[in-house]
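User: Quick sanity check before I run a bigger batch. Here is a single chain. Can you write out its predicted 3D structure?
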Amino acid sequence: MDRQSFVASATIHGIQAVPVTVEVSVGSGLPGISIVGLADSTVQESKLRVRSALRAAGYTVPPTHIVVNLAPSSLRKVGTGFDLPIAMGILACTGQIPKKVLDGKIFIGELSLDGSVRGVNGLFAVAVMASEQGSLLVSGQTSEDLSTILGEGHRVITNISTLRAGEFNLPSRVRPSMRPEDEILDYSDIASQDYAKRALQVAAAGMHDILMIGPPGSGKSMLAKRMPTIMPPLSDEERMESALIHSVAGLEFQSILAGTRPFRSPHHSATPAGLLGGGNPLTPGEVSLSHNGVLFLDEMAEFGSRVLQLLRQPMEDGKVVLARADGVYVFPSKFLLVGASNPCPCGYLGDPEKKCQCSEGQITRYRGKIGGPIMDRFDMMVQVNRSDPKSVLAAGTGKSSMEMREGVLAAREYISYRESCSKQEESTTEVGEDGKDAKLVQSCKMKQSSLGYLEQLAKVHKLSGRGIMKTLSVARTIADMDQRESVTEDDLAEAIMFRIQDAG
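Assistant: Done. Predicted structure follows.
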């Protein structure tokens, strides 16, 4: 009897699967199982689950000491997915299954006490790793469709009692699903709010962060929730990135593989860990779950000030970097931020029909909750007023999502064409942040009169340097929607309207 076996498995680090070799040795000593190799508490609990599962499935647990080493020992191991490879290693060591069953396969799965095998979070990431290695992935039954990654290279085990035959089943196919709200929501439900719709169309075309300010019942949430319906479908690369994040978080991602962009709307009671990521094991937060999609913060002024300020790095860098004792974790977070807020605590500042009951001090404190640094990072700010009853009753007759989406797609195509032309003209030298600003100015190809007009707007509205560049970026997108090479004064005028709002 071979007293040692080696089983290929994996652990999740950030959103990537990292190879782990499960080394099992059966030797003399007091009966029991010892797990070494920087395993966390969830992995240590495998000892009890594996022993009970093996006995329930009719196998013999040797009355000797079993040592399980998870290599490399310098990498922290988390999750319940090591149950299956540990059990496989013990069975191979004791000759209860052929050792050749382990060859060329990656095993991952959680065991129930009756020997059945469950799927685990992050299986999509493990499938990517298995595909890169050319290995067969063997796991518990899962609702995740991994055929796009592995083709026929995925097998499942429903119960370890079936291992005696040495054969594994093909997984049941999962039909890609769409979320019910994605099939129903459409901008045609909103008969009015043409100004806000235009702003959201520009935001979708250029991926501009936008803040909507208006009284309760003005339709801010309705407008925001329909944002994914006018955005282009996810590219193949974007689908992979977003699916990986959702798989690691244990969330459904079949709609993402079908091309639907993520839409996340966390409650204003969200914690820093909930928004940016955290916990043990470390999982991505809302800003990463909205990667390549939309992050909607409703009642934005009700969020904790500290929580909102943590958004500054993801908005600027497109990623979240979390430093922990066992290493640095990087979660991608390129999202379109849509914020919604009342203009004051009572919500009716500037409303022509209902008088505001707030004092000047209350209004100032309320607006200050969001904070200047975050406000300055929004590309667009839009006033959303309440619709008249006639428009509300005309729901279903407004401009549809399909019409708005056509404009967004046309703008995206023109942007790609324009950027490909500019790349041919530019040198291949890398540029810093200042270089990016210079490239934006050059891409606008403005006449001297338009440059002078922008300078005048910046002085009148006291725009910061970031504010000037964001206004110019929005103007560039407006010109792209009309497929014009140069940015005009009209484009700048519309962009500044989307930048400067006064609710009072």
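The radius of gyration is 28 Å.

User: Great, the batch can go ahead then.
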